[in-house]
């Protein structure tokens, strides 16, 4: 199951600067095999692309958390004058994270499209998996049951109805009790 990459493939896609600083020379993650050389990019399996996609999603989550940390650390201008340099530094970091996030989402889209191209023959439509309620269902041949089995079935169904009614009554009683407790607690305040 190998295919060639489209001309606009992921080989030219820039990696985030933060990730490049701690990767081994092969470009992979420590403890995992390095990325294949440039000539081997034509023989990439969907599993390998999914692993790259998983790492990309992890990078997206990390970048997003860093964006939230930067915005949480930023004070609102409530009449307090802050250092313009500090503001510009945080704004620059935020812009860089947003730019890298956009690149990561583009990379993830390319990976998704490539995986879909490589595995289009493996996808089953939802109609093949689960029939819809409006569609005709296959009739299963049912053998006639003996009267004793039908009687037992009716008895079991009646017991289930009674238990359901008892449970409904108990739930209503519990709901009323909780309502009363909450009312009493609100009056206490």
The best one-word shape is flat
Helical fraction? 55-70%
Strand content: under 5%
Give a count of the beta strands, DSSP E runs of length 2 or more.
Answer: 0
Q: What series of H and E elements makes up the topology? A: HHHHH
Mean pLDDT comes to 75
What number of structural domains do the residues give? 2
Number of DSSP helical runs:
5
Main sheet specs: none
Straight-line N-to-C gap: 69 Å
- Give the assembly state of these chains: single chain
Radius of gyration: 30 Å
Q: Low-confidence stretches at least 5 residues in length (pLDDT < 50)?
A: 1-33
Main structural class? mainly alpha
What does this structure look like?
It is found in: Nucleus. Keywords: Activator, Coiled coil, Nucleus, Transcription, Transcription regulation. This is Mediator of RNA polymerase II transcription subunit 30. By secondary structure, the chain is mainly α. It folds into two domains: about 10-125, no CATH class; about 145-189. It is about 60% helix and about 0% strand. The chain has five helices and no strands. Helix 2 (about 45-75) runs antiparallel to helix 3. Mean pLDDT is about 75; it is low at about 1-35.
């Amino acid at each position: 199951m190998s295919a060639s990459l489209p001309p606009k493939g992921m080989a030219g896609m820039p990696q985030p600067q933060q990730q490049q600083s701690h990767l081994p020379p092969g470009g992979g993650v420590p403890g995992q095999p390095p990325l294949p050389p440039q000539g081997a990019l034509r023989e990439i399996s969907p599993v390998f692309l999914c692993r790259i996609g998983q790492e990309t999603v992890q990078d997206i989550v990390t970048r997003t958390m860093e964006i939230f940390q930067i915005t949480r650390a930023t004070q609102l201008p409530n009449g307090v004058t802050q250092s313009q340099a500090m503001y510009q530094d945080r704004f620059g970091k935020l812009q860089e994270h947003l730019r890298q996030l956009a690149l990561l989402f583009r990379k993830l889209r390319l990976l998704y499209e490539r995986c879909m191209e490589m595995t289009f023959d493996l996808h089953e439509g939802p109609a093949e998996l689960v029939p819809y309620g409006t569609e005709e269902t296959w009739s299963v041949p049912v053998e006639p049951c003996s009267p004793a089995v039908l009687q037992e079935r009716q008895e079991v169904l009646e017991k289930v109805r009674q238990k359901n009614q008892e449970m409904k009554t108990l739930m209503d009683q519990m709901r009323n009790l909780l309502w009363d407790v909450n009312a009493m607690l609100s009056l206490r305040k």
